[in-house]
């Protein structure tokens, strides 16, 4: 007898659930159309981008050598300006360049040495940071806050979640 009485509320709730399902159903049917529309739009965008991409690339290819030449010209001018200001330094620089141009092997070694130094400096950086961290004065941890009591989700929200 008691078992039957407990089962009764479930039967009462069922029609409500069915009605809610029925209400939500048309929305679900509309989704595929929206999805198709989105897919079409995405495809159009993709095609448009593909059309524009080669044009942009061609333009970049055209601009690249110009930019490089411009940069080299600027560098050269800057170098000459700097060296004209200091004649002694200019002499030394010219001598060094001449020497390196005469001995490509020496130039290669010089470049390798510089690269090695740079990589070594890069590798040492994390160690330096770690040492700094170790040396820093230790801060006390903040006192732990008591967690706020958890609120139960409202039954309506639960139902909405279940529907999703």
Automatic annotation (TrEMBL):
What GO molecular function annotations does the UniProt record carry, in alphabetical order?
DNA binding; glycosyltransferase activity; structural constituent of chromatin
Compositional bias, Basic and acidic residues, is annotated for 38-114
What are the transmembrane regions?
Answer: none
The record's region (Disordered) falls at 1-164
**Domain of life the protein comes from:** Archaea
Which controlled-vocabulary keywords does the entry list? Glycosyltransferase, Transferase
For the protein in the UniProt heading, the enzyme class is transferase
Keyword Transferase listed? The answer is yes
Return the GO cellular component terms, semicolon-separated: nucleosome
GO:BP terms for this protein? nucleosome assembly
EC number(s) per entry: 2.4.99.1
Q: Where is the composition biased (Basic residues)?
A: 1-37, 115-164
How is this protein named in the record?
A: Beta-galactoside alpha-26-sialyltransferase sialyltransferase 1 protein
């Amino acid at each position: 007898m008691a078992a039957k009485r407990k089962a009764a509320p479930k039967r009462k709730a069922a029609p409500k659930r069915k009605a809610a399902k029925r209400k939500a159903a048309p929305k679900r049917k509309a989704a595929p159309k929206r999805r198709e529309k989105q897919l079409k739009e995405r495809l159009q965008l993709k095609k448009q981008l593909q059309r524009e991409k080669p044009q942009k690339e061609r333009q970049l290819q055209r601009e690249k050598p110009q930019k490089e030449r411009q940069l080299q010209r600027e560098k050269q001018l800057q170098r000459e300006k700097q060296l004209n200001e200091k004649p002694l330094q200019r002499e030394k620089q010219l001598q060094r360049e001449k020497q390196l141009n005469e001995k490509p092997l020496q130039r290669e070694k010089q470049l390798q040495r510089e690269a090695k130094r740079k990589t070594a400096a890069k590798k040492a950086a994390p160690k330096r940071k770690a040492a700094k961290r170790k040396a820093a004065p230790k801060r006390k941890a903040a006192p732990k806050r008591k967690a706020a009591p958890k609120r139960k989700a409202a039954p309506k929200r639960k139902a909405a979640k279940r529907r999703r």
